[in-house]
C-alpha cells in the first residue's frame, strides 16, 4: 500500500547503525511484543501500562513491524502497521557507507489479513452454496438482506480500523523518528 507523500517524507530512509542496533534501540524505546493476536498475560499488562504510542514486533532478523499502541490491543489488530525492512534489498533506498537503509511498507498485520481473507471467502461461498442448494432457502430476500448486512459490517469494521489506526500511526511519526535517530545512552557515536 502506498503512503501519502507528506507522510513518507517524514520517515528516515537510513539510520547510522546496524540492523541489530536499530532493533535493540526500538525494543528499548517502544513497547516490544511477540504477538498482537495471541498475546501473553505479561504482554497485555505491559500494553495497559506502557506510556509510548507505538509497539514494535520482530518479524525476522531484518524485518520489524511498528504499529500504533491504541487503548485496546484488539483495536490495534485492525490498524495499519509499518513493515520496515532493515538493510539492502530490492526496493531499498541507497544509504551512505556504514548506514542501514530502511524500506517502509504500510499494511495490515499478517494474521489480520489472513483472517479477513478467510472470512470474506466464507461470506461469499456460504450464501452461494445455500443459493445453489436444492430449494434455495425459504426466503431468498431475507437471506440476501442478512448476507448483505454481514458483508457490510465485515468490511466496515476493518475500514474504520484502517482510518482511525492510521491516524494514530501518523500522529506518532515524530516519536518514531526520535526513537530511530537518537542514539541510546550505551551507543558510541
Structure in words:
Helix content is 49%, strand content 16%. By secondary structure, the chain is of the alpha+beta class. The protein has one domain (5-181). A six-stranded mixed sheet has the order 1-6-5-4-3-2, with helices on both faces. α5 packs antiparallel against α6 (140-171). The longest helix is centred in the last third of the chain and has 32 residues, at 140-171. The radius of gyration is 21 Å and the shape is elongated. The mean pLDDT is 84.
List keywords for this structure.
189 residues; alpha+beta; 6-stranded mixed β-sheet; 6 strands; 49% helix
In angstroms, what is the radius of gyration?
Answer: 21 Å
Relative strand content? 15-25%
Shape: elongated
**What are the low-pLDDT stretches, counting only 5+ consecutive residues below 50?**
none
Amount of helix: 40-55%
Amino acid at each position: 500500500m502506498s503512503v501519502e507523500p507528506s507522510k513518507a517524507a517524514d520517515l528516515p530512509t537510513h539510520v547510522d547503525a546496524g540492523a541489530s542496533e536499530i532493533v535493540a534501540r526500538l525494543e528499548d524505546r517502544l513497547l516490544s511484543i511477540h504477538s498482537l493476536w495471541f498475546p501473553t498475560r505479561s504482554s497485555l499488562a505491559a500494553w495497559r501500562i506502557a506510556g509510548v504510542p507505538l509497539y514494535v514486533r520482530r518479524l525476522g532478523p531484518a524485518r520489524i513491524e511498528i504499529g500504533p499502541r491504541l487503548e485496546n490491543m484488539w483495536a490495534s489488530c485492525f490498524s495499519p502497521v509499518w513493515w520496515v525492512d532493515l538493510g539492502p534489498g530490492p526496493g531499498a533506498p541507497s544509504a551512505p557507507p556504514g548506514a542501514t537503509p530502511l524500506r517502509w511498507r504500510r499494511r495490515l498485520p499478517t494474521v489480520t489479513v489472513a483472517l479477513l481473507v478467510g472470512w470474506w471467502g466464507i461470506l461469499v461461498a456460504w450464501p452461494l452454496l445455500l443459493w445453489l442448494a436444492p430449494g434455495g432457502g425459504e426466503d431468498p430476500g431475507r437471506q440476501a438482506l442478512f448476507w448483505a448486512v454481514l458483508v457490510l459490517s465485515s468490511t466496515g469494521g476493518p475500514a474504520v480500523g484502517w482510518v482511525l489506526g492510521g491516524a494514530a500511526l501518523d500522529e506518532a511519526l515524530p516519536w518514531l523518528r526520535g526513537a530511530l535517530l537518537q542514539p541510546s545512552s550505551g551507543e558510541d557515536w
